[in-house]
Amino acid sequence: MTGNQPSDDGPAPTEGLVVVSNREPYSHTYEADADAEEGDDSTEREIQVQRPVGGLTAGLDPVMQAASGTWVAWGDGDADREVADERGRVRVPPEDPAYTLQRVWLSDEEVEDYYYGYSNQVLWPLCHGDVGNITYEPRFWQRYEEVNRRFADAASDCVERDDSEDDGLIWFQDYHFGLAPAIARSQVGDETTIAQFWHIPWPSLESFEVCPQHHQLLEGLLANDLLGFHVDPHCAHFLECVDACIEGAAIDWDEGRVIHDGHETLVRSFPMGVDTDRIERLAGSEGADDFWADFRESRAIAPDATVAVGVDRLDYTKGIPERVRAVEHLLETRPEYRGEFVYVQKASESRSQIPAYRELQREVSETVERVNDRFGTDDWQPIVGVTEMLPAESLYGLYRHADLALVSPVRDGMNLVAKEYVAAQVANDGALVLSEFAGAVEDLGNYAYTINPYATEEFADTIHEAVTDSPTDRKRRMRQLRQLVAAYDLDAWMDDIFGTVTDLRSDRRGAETDAAGRTEQS
Ligand code: GDG
Fold this sequence. Notes:
alpha/beta, Rossmann fold, 18 strands, binds GDP-alpha-D-glucose
C-alpha cells in the first residue's frame, strides 16, 4: 500500500498529489552522435530517456502513476524542452503516460547560484554543522529566493482546486526549497495541505544562527502543515531554533507542534527506508553473482580475501578520508590483515564545480594512493577504487558479497547505503560498521558495530571486531538488522507520511466542526 486508498476520512491524500523536487524523475537527452561534426545541428539526433535509478524517485514513481498527479522539477536534460509542451509539461512514463512532469527551466546563472551556490555551499554545510565550509555570496540568496518562487508558482498552478474541504497536497522535497512553502501558501490558501521532507540533518541553534537568512528560512518552513526529518534529534534541533528565533511561536514539545501566525505545523520524524523486496531480489540474482565473479577477477581480489565495501557520493560529509585512515591503521597495527583484507571504495563524483569537493577528490586519491603504495604488493592491493556508476544489480551484488560495509559519515541525514547493505544480506552473513553520526544509527545502532569516524584507532579495532566475531554473533546481529530494515521499508515510510496527512486533515475538520458548533450555540 502507499497511501493511495481513499478512507472514511475523505479522499486519499495522494489524490491530485503535487511533488516538488530539484531533480526530475525522467530526463530527456540527445543521444551522442559519433558522426556529427561539432556545432552541426543539421542532422536529427535521437532522444533517449533517463529513468529513475533508485531511492525516493523510483519509489514515488508508481505512487504518482496511481495518483495521476504532477511532479514539478528542474528540466536539466538537454532534450527536455523539445519533448515538453509550451508550458514545460510532458506526460510520463513515456511508454505508458500516467502523470504529468512539469518542468521548471533554469538558466546557467540560476543553477550556479541557487543550486551550487545557496543550496550546496550554504545550506548543505550549514545543516551538516560544518560552518567552516560555508561560502556565502549575496547573489546566491537572491537567486535562491527567485528560484523558490518559480517552483512555488509552478506547484500552486498544478493544484486542482474544486472548493472541496481538502484541495490537494503539495509535497516539497529537501533543502532546495526552504522558502517555497510560504510562497505556495500565499497562493493556495489553507485548504491545500503543504508538506515537506528535509532529507539532511537540521543543525544545532549555534550553527544555524550563523546563516544570515536563518529567520526567513524558518518562516518559509513554518508554512508547511507537516515538516518531516529522518530522526528525532533533527526535529528537536528545528524546534529549538524556532523557539529561539521566532517571536511568539507556541511550541508543544511533546507533540512536535508549532503554532505561528495562526498556522500550525507538525514536526515529526519519518526514518526513510529502502525497497527491501527489490534489493533482496536483485542481490540474490544470477546477474549479481556474475558481476561479483567478474569484478573479483578483474581486480585481482583473492577468493578467500576479507572484503569490506564503502559506497558514497564523493562528499566531505561521508567521512571517506577518515575511513581510509582507519584501514591504514588496521594494516599498520595488525600485520595479519596484509595480503588478506581488501577495501572496495565505490565513490561517484559529485558537485565537482564546488572547490571543497575538488579538494576532497584530491585528498581521497592521495590517501588511497599512499596506503596502496605503503602496503600493496605485486599480487595484492589493499584499496580498490570504483568510480563508475554501477547498475542496481551490480551494486547489490557488491553489497551481497562483501563481508562488511564501512559506513562512516561525519554527519548524515539518514544514509541509505547502510540500509541497502543490510537488505542485500540474503544469507545474513555480513556485518555493518556504522558511524554514530549517521541518522541510520537511531534505527540500527543496537545491532551494527558503531564507530566514531574520527577515532581512528577505535575505528580500526571495530573493523577487527566485526571481522573476527563468531559467525553466530554476526548472523544474530544481521538477522535483527534485516528485520528492522524490512519492517519500515520505503513503502512503509511513504504510508506513514501520507497517513499523517490524512490524520492532520481529519483533525482540522474536527476542529472546524467544533468551532462551528460553538458559534451556533452562542
Ligand atoms: C541524501 C542525504 C539521506 C551510490 N552509488 C551508486 C548508487 N548509489 C546510491 C546508493 C544510495 C544513494 O546513492 C546514496 O544515498 P545516501 O543516503 O547515502 O546519500 P545522499 O546522496 O547524500 O542523500 C542522506 C538521503 O538523502 C535520503 O533521504 O539518507 O542522509 O544526504 O541509494 O545506492 N546507486 C547505483 N549505482 C551506484 O554506483 N545504482
